Amino acid sequence: MYDSNSPDWWKYGVVYHIYPHSFKDSNDDGIGDIPGIIKKLDYLKELGVDAIWLSPVYSSPMVDMGYDICDYQNIDEHYGTMDDFKNLLAEAHQRGIRVIMDLVLNHTSDLHPWFLQSRSSRKNPKRDWYIWRPPRKGQKGKKPNNWITNFGKKAWRYDHKTKEYYYHSFFWQQADLNWRNPEVKEAMFDVMRFWLDMGVDGFRLDVINLIYKDKDLRNNKSRVFKKSEIHNRNQPEAYELLRDFRKLLDSYPGKTSVGEIYTPPPGDPFLAASFLGNGTDMLHMVFDFSLIFTLWRAPGYYKTLTGYYEKIPADGWPCFFLSNHDIGRSIRRLLWEWSKYERAKLHAVLLATLKGTPFIYYGEEIGMENVTIPKTHIRDLYGRLLYPFFRGRDRARTPMQWSDKPHAGFSKETPWLPVAGNYATVNVKKQQDDSNSILSIYKSLLALRKKEVALQKGDITFLGKGENNILAYSRVYGQEEIIVLLNFSRRKKKYKGAFGNAALLFSTHKSTKLSETGVVLQAMEGVILKRSLAG
Ligand code: GLC
Questions:
Q1: Domains in the chain, please, with CATH?
Q2: pTM
Q3: Which ligand 1 atom is the nearest neighbour of the CA of 55?
């Protein structure tokens, strides 16, 4: 059984990612909030969630929806008060649910008092807390180097008062901190202690590989894919910092961390896993994006998954996610409309049975989809800046679909983003009453994962390489073996193997028959079997 008191809870439990603006609005201002999350804790418990990760809830001008923080030790008024947060912690803990905070170490809001001081004069003691440079010598108006932001714009902003540029990896309202200054580290480690002392259970570290930049700020070469020629990320000092971070976390029992290491397609599991160090001295887990970029074919999934597992150090721990607030919802990638819910169910089986911690993005458990937001309603600044080429990231941030009531039961007032058009049919209430719904499938799978130790702790071995478009693997713990068969195909297929002595634990289709010669899998069917290896 899963033990929420074990120091290893984060390996065997299930994490649910909440986008606070869109989860549940308790005061009917159209914006989700912390008391709303508290109201839904019982729902999460029933679903089988063991921890929640909250996208940032700190005070913020919301230029980047909370990823631009102006007070790291306060709760934004949209979400409630510090007392509400403490209440959330207590209520979650009472139910055995842990709380993971998002922590943005790379940059602050330009309205953070540190930056206001830093920009006030070149002589201000906080000047060096950020990355300031004069225009290139002899070249008036020239930016210090050729670095660009993560969305392809120039990454230096000129400050007319002090006549220097500051560096920003994202919007210009998000100034990058200078981690080469030890005072910055001290201040941020104090922030971490503040939350750890309060009882939070860990951190998700935002864009952690960006934290250090080349100290000479050398130009990036145009061949952007050659790692050695990129100087505004992945610096050796980041690894040193994470060692100290881990020491701090380890001084509090039972805490965890997960780092975001975004890399463009096809992803870079080697880079992601490098931030695990030897598996026990840096991050506890890292998000690797290669699965997100893998096409819907069993051999492709096999290749991606084995590629990622190979890179995880012996003492390290994998984790998996299919959707998030930036990259969009997984159902978007499930190409054919007609089978999208079948595929979502198959994805659920995958997430719940792989070796590694599953992260579920809110709404994924009911098959919420990306929503096309009309131009007038786009809230993500990227969408407004890059429209019509990119409509931004709002598509996967729409209100949680709780019921078929107005505004999907998210709020009584008009929500900050439009609700998806399909809310009358795709919602929690409806799926709760349907034993065949995606929600019911998730519930059964998470319950199974809690019950079966082999699904939590067992080693994973792939059975074949995705031949016949079936992804097959086995999880072994002690004398118990769990076998997972996932038919990625739109056709009925037979998986050959002697399963006469196995028990059927789960199937997405419920009609499965095992025999001495194999299992017949319906189109898009996922099956979980169990057998004893004893005797
Ligand atoms: C991360 C967040 C994203 C944010 C960016 C800057 O990638 O997930 O939402 O815009 O960092 O903080």
A1: 9-107+182-213+255-447 (3.20.20.80), 113-176 (3.90.400.10), 459-532 (2.60.40.1180)
A2: 0.98
A3: 8
